[in-house]
Amino acid sequence: MTDQQTVIAGQKNLAAGAKDMFRALVAFDQTVLGTDTALPKKYKELMAVAVALTTQCPGCLSQHTAAAIAAGASQAELAETVHVAAALRAGAAMYHGMAYVMPHAAGDHS
Fold it and tell me: CB neighbours (10 Å) of residue 81?
């Protein structure tokens, strides 16, 4: 796992190397996730946790879990979010197996 100091140094370098792009991304993120809109902030953060679980991004998981809790997410809501993400990953594996593996496995080859 990458330590926090390395990430902070990388963030500073990224921001310095492409200031306008970095500012635009931060502004976009704040616009999308920062406030209640048609979707309450809590729901957005729970969705972000589910996506972070499927992409397996440790930084995203930490940040969005904390934000979901700050927005009022309960232990039960976070637990269900974990299960939703797990179901989607399992479903994707089943779909890919049906679409890309099993068409080539016609008949019993044992």
Answer: 22
Q: Which two tokens stand for residue 71?
A: 């927005």
Query: pTM here?
Result: 0.84
Write out the two tokens for 1: 């796992």
Residue by residue, DSSP assigns 43-60 as HHHHHHHHHHHHHT-HHH
Q: How far apart are CA 66 and CA 83, in angstroms?
A: 18
Residue 63 shares a structural domain with residue 89: yes
Containing domain of residue 54, as a range?
A: 36-110
pLDDT tens for the chain, residues 1 to 110: 678 899 899 999 999 999 999 999 999 999 999 999 999 999 999 999 999 999 999 999 999 999 999 999 999 999 999 999 999 999 999 999 999 999 998 776 65
Per the CB < 8 A criterion, the answer to whether 44 and 32 are in contact is yes
Same domain, 70 and 95: yes
Under 8 Å between Cβ of 38 and 67: no
